[in-house]
Amino acid sequence: MLAAVLTSILVFGSSVRNVSGDKSLCPDGWLLSNETSYCYLTSDRYMTFAEADGYCQSLGGSQAFMMNSYEFTFMKSYTQGMFAQPWLGVTRNLTNNKWYNNDGTTPYSSWWIAGEPSLNGDCVSFKSTDKQGIRATQCWSIQPVICKQMPALCPDPNKKYGGLHTRTGNITSPGYPVQYYNNLDCFYSITSPNNTYITLQLDPYLVENAIDYLTIYDGPNATYKSLGKATSSSKLTFESTSNSVSLVFHTDKTVTKKGWLLNWNAKAYTPNVNQSGNGGNFTSPNYPNDYDSYTEQMYYFSVADGFQVNVTIDDFLTENRFDVLEVYDNYTIPGVNMIANLTGDSIAPWNWLSQSSHVTMRFRTDGTNQKRGFHGYWTIQ
Ligand SMILES: *[C@@H]1O[C@H](CO)[C@@H](O)[C@H](O)[C@H]1NC(C)=O
Ligand SMILES: *[C@@H]1O[C@H](CO)[C@@H](O)[C@H](O)[C@H]1NC(C)=O
Ligand SMILES: *[C@@H]1O[C@H](CO)[C@@H](O)[C@H](O)[C@H]1NC(C)=O
Ligand SMILES: *[C@@H]1O[C@H](CO)[C@@H](O)[C@H](O)[C@H]1NC(C)=O
Ligand SMILES: *[C@@H]1O[C@H](CO)[C@@H](O)[C@H](O)[C@H]1NC(C)=O
Ligand SMILES: *[C@@H]1O[C@H](CO)[C@@H](O)[C@H](O)[C@H]1NC(C)=O
Ligand SMILES: *[C@@H]1O[C@H](CO)[C@@H](O)[C@H](O)[C@H]1NC(C)=O
Ligand SMILES: *[C@@H]1O[C@H](CO)[C@@H](O)[C@H](O)[C@H]1NC(C)=O
Ligand SMILES: *[C@@H]1O[C@H](CO)[C@@H](O)[C@H](O)[C@H]1NC(C)=O
Ligand SMILES: *[C@@H]1O[C@H](CO)[C@@H](O)[C@H](O)[C@H]1NC(C)=O
């Protein structure tokens, strides 16, 4: 009878205890802590310490103990108003008379309530009223137990993003755009069509700078060369050398932010068009057939020092505003030397005479609406 009353109080207690946000990441009945990123459950059943770990394991977890001061803070709010004193996975080693968490680490001395650890038992329960903290308890007494498990916060590491027929996609950090979680090491792998390479752009990138970070690898797993770490302050774009790239998002045990949105695109390899001498003809890739999506094609025209380049475009059709031919005097890309940014259906005929003896052009296309592109020629002047 007493146990039944206690149990119903406890159940009521846990149903009003809402110390975190998204519960759906944890199994039914477990609570996700946004402080620790673990799922917690307090048993309805009362049991001896010896039964506690087996009980938690039967539910897919293990007995909770506190790994750091953030978890202690969580435990205080989680057990607030609980009348029982639930077991934690902490015991006294009878040989050396020291206290150990189940993983062999030592509980912080400040977590013991006043006068503890006493000789009153070799197991530990959490005192949830008044001054909260841990206390030595007889292992044979019966208490509820707090179980804990790591929720599936990262996507399945075997999930493949992209594929041989996909040229673009977005990936976001777990919990985006609300907040990501602590204690993560999430793995992502992207592949794109053969004969393409992958560009990555992070926007926004809101993480605890330098402490939580995304590392980019130039291949299908983290054994490949690192292309660098994203940092809030500078590096936010990356480019692979082949059609696969992988990422690891690491977070530490404290402080989370909104996270990141990654937009990736596969770009076709298009060797530079380099021409020199007295003149040449040039076209967009595949012309007069449609160019490809996500193309980036460079053109370099060079004449002898002291001469100029006379560029004429006699046919031009691209998706207005999105597929663009940039024309630069000399080599600068991109910069003050851009003299034209050509797009749409009303460009040709177009003619321009360079100031310097070099002309650089860059043709860039997006993922939708391919057209026939352009045709032109240049002569030495
Ligand atoms: C966890 O959520 C609570 C309530 O929504 C909030 O006050 C607290 O700042 C959050 N903690 C972290 C670490 O985000
Ligand atoms: C208790 O501590 C002693 C001495 O450090 C050690 O040899 C022994 O393995 C420990 N026992 C347990 C059950 O951890
Ligand atoms: C990726 O995210 C950007 C920015 O939010 C959005 O404009 C774009 O449509 C998204 N692309 C895909 C393939 O979801
Ligand atoms: C892409 O390349 C791989 C490895 O070289 C090859 O096995 C596969 O058939 C190619 N796929 C396509 C669609 O060309
Ligand atoms: C990494 O990828 C390469 C090539 O696919 C593979 O041979 C290697 O076994 C992978 N290594 C790991 C640790 O997954
Ligand atoms: C084309 O010219 C550019 C600029 O001079 C140079 O960087 C590049 O290596 C050249 N490429 C080829 C294939 O000659
Ligand atoms: C450019 O094309 C025209 C017409 O097709 C051709 O006569 C000329 O020889 C070409 N010039 C070069 C440098 O290839
Ligand atoms: C540049 O070439 C075009 C087409 O061949 C020609 O009409 C134009 O006069 C030339 N410009 C100069 C400055 O010679
Ligand atoms: C060229 O024009 C396009 C579309 O108007 C624009 O998105 C792009 O930023 C321009 N490029 C430069 C370098 O100004
Ligand atoms: C063209 O660019 C080269 C290399 O960046 C530079 O050395 C040269 O001074 C530039 N010439 C002109 C006319 O801007």
UniProtKB/TrEMBL annotation:
Pfam family, any one: CUB
Signal peptide: 1-21
PROSITE patterns xrefs: C_TYPE_LECTIN_2, CUB
Residues covered by the CUB domain: 154-267, 269-381
Keywords tagged on the record: Disulfide bond, Signal
Residue ranges annotated for the C-type lectin domain, each copy included: 35-148
Full protein name: C-type LECtin
Annotated source species: Caenorhabditis elegans
The organism's taxonomic lineage, starting at the top: Eukaryota, Metazoa, Ecdysozoa, Nematoda, Chromadorea
